[in-house]
Amino acid sequence: MTLFGAIEAGGTKFVCGVGGARAGSRARAVIATTDPAATLAEVGAFFDRALEAHGPLDAIGLGSFGPLELDPKADRYGQITTTPKPGWSGVDIGGWLRARYGIPVAIDTDVNAAALAEADARGVSSLAYATVGTGIGVGLVLNGTPHLGTSHPEAGHIPVRRHEGHSGFTGICPYHGDCLEGLASGPAIKAAWGASLDRLPADHPAWAIEADYIGQLCASLILMVSPGTIVLGGGVMQQARLLNLVRAAALRQLGGYCPQWEAAAAERISMPLSGEAPGLTGAYLLAERLAGQRDESDAP
Ligand code: ADP
Ligand code: ZN
Predict the structure, then answer these.
(1) Residue 197: CB within 6 Å of ligand 1?
(2) 70 φ/ψ angles, rounded to the nearest 5 degrees
(3) From ligand 2's centre to the CA of 177, what distance in Å?
């Protein structure tokens, strides 16, 4: 029985598992993200215990918060780069795992891992996964493959058209002020209105404004990438009523220009399907793909 390791490395927590994408996790741990040394010590302790209990792993998949250097030719390949998270810039989780366990480690962004899991769950080859939480990030699967480009897309930081009800709010992105993340992330909602959406009444303007921004993101993704499906995850999207507002806002933005989306917005813009955290399932898939490639290239 082939066994894989998976890590969804987040800014607030690391979710670690041993198992497989289809079978799920045999062992699982949630570890708070503190400083790198303490966090990785706990991650190592989890995998040490899991190896002892369940046997060797073929590969580990890692879906990580970033920004990450993912150009294999770069000196800093695999490292977290310009994160504002104290102590984490320059940390190479994948390299550390490879050295510790001597097995292949696949690394991608947390959102690409989640996109891979959602594409797999739906049996589709093109999908965008957006998380709207502490930050906003978008992962893309195109032609069945997680898309990286030069490093990886940062669609959370696209410029958006400011909603007229939001004119007094300058946005909180330290790099851009009023980019999408600066206006529509969970902390941006709190900065603008003093509370998260779950604490604001249904007729509060924050709902329509948030839906407008996430709708603009969906419209931009549709116009630029033409994914078959857009999946919206993250803490802010836990507010189920937001989804319909976002669909309507996306169609408004498109202005009747993309009829295939008008007809099917309810299916094409949707919530995650993955049972486990999509990022963890995606991390298993990254590991399985890497092991599969290795097997093929090893074949005589
Ligand atoms: P992270 O992005 O750190 O992985 P989350 O996706 O849970 O974590 O996002 C956290 C953000 O989402 C916070 O800003 C919080 O205010 C907001 N949030 C979390 N849960 C909810 C909820 N149930 N309803 C509305 N907003 C939420
Ligand atoms: Zn920004």
Answers:
(1) yes
(2) -115, 15
(3) 6
Tell me the ligand closest to 135's alpha carbon: 1
CA dist 69 and 288 (Å) reads: 22
Q: Looking at the structure, do residues 73 and 106 belong to the same domain, yes or no? A: yes
Q: Which residues contact 49 (CB under 8 A, 6 or more apart)?
A: 27
Domain range for 193 is 113-270
Orientation of helix 259-268 relative to helix 241-254, angle to 10°: 170
Question: CB neighbours of 42 closer than 8 A, spacing ≥ 6?
Answer: 14, 29, 31
CA Rg value for the chain: 19
Tell whether 128 and 21 lie within a shared domain.
no
Q: Residues within 5 Å of ion ligand 2 by Cβ?
A: 157, 173, 175-176, 179, 181
Q: 100 and 129 in one domain?
A: no
Q: What is the pLDDT along the chain (300 residues), one digit of tens a residue?
A: 799 999 999 988 999 999 999 999 999 999 999 999 999 999 999 999 999 999 999 999 999 998 899 988 888 898 999 887 889 999 999 999 999 999 999 999 999 999 999 999 999 999 999 999 999 999 999 999 999 988 789 999 999 999 999 989 999 999 999 999 999 999 999 999 999 999 999 999 999 999 999 999 999 999 999 999 999 999 999 999 999 999 999 999 999 999 989 889 999 999 999 766 899 999 999 999 999 976 654 444
Sign for the CA dihedral angle at 163, 168, 173, 178 comes to positive
100 plus 128 within the same structural domain: no
Q: Parallel, antiparallel, or unpaired: how do β-strands 229-233 and 127-132 relate?
A: parallel
Distance from the alpha carbon of residue 198 to the mean position of ligand 1, in angstroms: 10
- 0.90 exceeded by pTM: yes
